Amino acid sequence: MNVCMAAIEKLQKQIGVELQQEAKIFIYRTRNDMLAALPSKGQTADAFLTVLGELAGPNTVLLLGGDPNVDNTTYHELSHLVVHLATTNPLIGGVNIPAWLDEGLSMYNQQTVESGYTNALNRALQSDSLISVRSLTAVPGQPDQVILFYGESYSLVKYLTETYSKEKMVQLLGVFKRGALVDDALKEVYGFGVQELDNRWRASLGAAPRDASTPSGATQPNPPAQPNQPAQPNPAPAAPFSCACLSGALFLSLWWFIQRSSAT
Questions:
Q1: What residue segments make up the domains of the chain, in order of their start?
Q2: Strand pairing of 60-64 and 241-246?
């Protein structure tokens, strides 16, 4: 249970959110117990990825308790839950954030990021085969691109958060909650759109900026570096919980209140 609270507190410190919700966490003893409850991510992802955890509804997380990486998975999936609750807009049919931001925030909040994702990113850098940011709005349909998608998503969120501050990330989530398109949301918060984000992020990795007319990228002057803004710490909340055993799973109810960091 301490892992659940630590995951929520870390996300609070990373991006700052304000929530008062109930979360339901089902922890399954075996993979077979969990399979029937898993929603599909699509044919490619279902075949290529081994699911250790899943956000199964607006406030429901499924976890494979017997996996040795369950703590890291808990951080990842609870991050999805908190971000989704913070950005859901029923008027537009639910959550309105691109896949790279959704997955990137969850990976950024993990205890550790597996080397396979960073290795895939480094290989793509060396071969000049990074997926464009504009193409990261959904998980790729090609199996060999899935791991790279996650590696790039993590790198993008890390770049935005550590270059422009967590306060900007809070603002971005708020703009998406209003139903803004990706390009418009980025321009409102950061002053540049998807193409410029791609160029700035690539430059931060040492890659040549991508020219919009040539997918392979044409060399352009590097954009100016942006000053890093210090994040303000937030007090860690206390949160009671209750648990009761269910057949094949452990049901946990969490209540928490996370203070939103004040904008600077």
A1: 2-210+238-255
A2: unpaired
Q: Give the integer Cα–Cα distance in Å for 58 and 82.
A: 9
Contact of 206 with 144, CB cutoff 8 Å? no
Q: Alpha-carbon distance 240 to 173, whole Å?
A: 27
> Hey, what are 45's tokens?
């992802």
Which residues are paired to 254 by β-bridges?
A: 23, 241
**Are residues 34 and 28 in contact, defined by beta-carbon separation less than 8 angstroms?**
yes
In whole angstroms, give the CA distance from residue 5 to residue 254: 9
**Secondary element (H or E) of residue 162:** helix 143-164
**Beta-carbon count within 10 A of 54 CB:** 20
Surface-to-core class of residue 201, CB atoms within 10 Å of its CB (0-12 exposed, 13-18 middle, 19+ buried): buried
Contacts of 227 (CB under 8 A, 6+ apart): none
Which DSSP helix (H) or strand (E) runs through 199?
helix 194-204
Q: How does pLDDT run across 129-177, given as a tens digit for each residue?
A: 999 999 999 999 888 899 999 999 999 999 999 999 889 998 999 999 9
Within 8 A by CB and 6+ apart from 204, the residues are 159, 163
Neighbouring residues of 127: CB distance < 8 A, sequence distance ≥ 6: none
Architecture of domain 2-210+238-255: Orthogonal Bundle (1.10)
pLDDT in tens, 31-80: 878 877 776 666 655 555 667 777 777 677 888 887 787 888 888 888 88
More confident residue, 175 or 240: 175
List % helix, strand, coil for the chain (3-state, nearest 5).
45, 15, 40
